[in-house]
Amino acid sequence: MADSMHRKLIESKGAVMAVLTTVAISIGGLVEIAPLYSEALGPEPMEGIEPLTPLELAGRDIYVREGCYNCHSQMVRPFRDETLRYGEWTRAGEIVYDRPFQMGSRRIGPDLQRVGGKYPDAWHYEHMDDPRATSPGSIMPRYSWLKERQIDPEAVQASMRALQTLGTPYTDEQIADAPAAIQRQGGEIVARLEAGNLSAQPDDQIVALTAYLQQLGVAGRKAIQAQKDAAAALEAGTEIPASVED
Ligand code: HEC
């Protein structure tokens, strides 16, 4: 009975059948496609993961310009040999602001995702000036011109604005303050270089690239440790430390 009703009311009427078929398929399509347009989709940034500072962003643009990704990946894979060599494997929530991402696919040199803090600033300066000076036998090319050229604060602001339109949470104040922020952070690196008898200017390209390299993987490592501490505390039945809970 129900069967013949169905046939009489819907299947025998071509137009009705077509409309209802379209509706049925559209529901499936909407459910699958609509969320892709939602901003909230994708990995959430982990605790403490912030967009790069203007100086670090300038360094990142140089990293991309010079094609460092041709020899260096930025993704520690979850295999024992990798984690023993590089440390924690890379979580998606660490690299949410990395646009375009620098995971890379070739490793002629080592992975750099956790290189931040591994060496002093002066090491990076000397290594980029002449890789053979710090790493005998290295096949990495020299990048000595980075010592002689300066970054353009307006280009950094343009990069920040471009990222802002893509959803990176830079505020207009941060963009306006970028030239001053470059001097501040660059000045700290210059002070450390000078302690090693190297002279540089806060806006030297080599200083910006050093700033970029020195933060790689650092905040992520902290975030992962916090997650592990929270999990261990749960397992031990103790209270989760307040800092992790909120
Ligand atoms: C032709 C391939 C090649 C290119 C291009 C290259 N590197 Fe390297 N890089 C290497 C090799 C090989 C090593 C390992 C030996 C050494 O320390 O120099 C290395 C080592 C490094 C290290 C030390 C990593 C560690 O954990 O010890 C850093 C940092 C680095 N490179 C940064 C850069 C940056 C920044 C660029 C772009 C400006 C760059 N590299 C371009 C091949 C390359």
Question: Which residues sit in consecutive blocks of at least 5 with pLDDT less than 50?
Answer: none
Bound molecules: heme C
Helix-strand pattern:
HHHHHHHHHHHHH
> Quick one: CATH superfamily of the largest domain?
Cytochrome c-like domain
Give a quick rundown of the structure.
By secondary structure, the chain is mainly alpha-helical.
Write up this protein.
The protein has 246 residues and is mainly α. The protein has two domains: 36 residues; 192 residues, Orthogonal Bundle (Cytochrome Bc1 Complex, Chain D, domain 2), CATH 1.10.760.10. The radius of gyration is 25 Å and the shape is elongated. The mean pLDDT is 92. The structure holds heme C (HEC). The site of heme C has 21 residues, from α11.
SSE layout:
Elements: H1 2-11, H2 14-33, H3 54-65, H4 80-86, H5 121-129, H6 131-134, H7 145-148, H8 153-165, H9 172-176, H10 178-195, H11 205-215, H12 218-235, H13 242-245
Helix pairs in contact: 3-8, 3-11, 5-11, 10-11
Keywords for this entry:
single chain, 246 residues, mainly alpha, Cytochrome Bc1 Complex, Chain D, domain 2, 13 helices, binds heme C
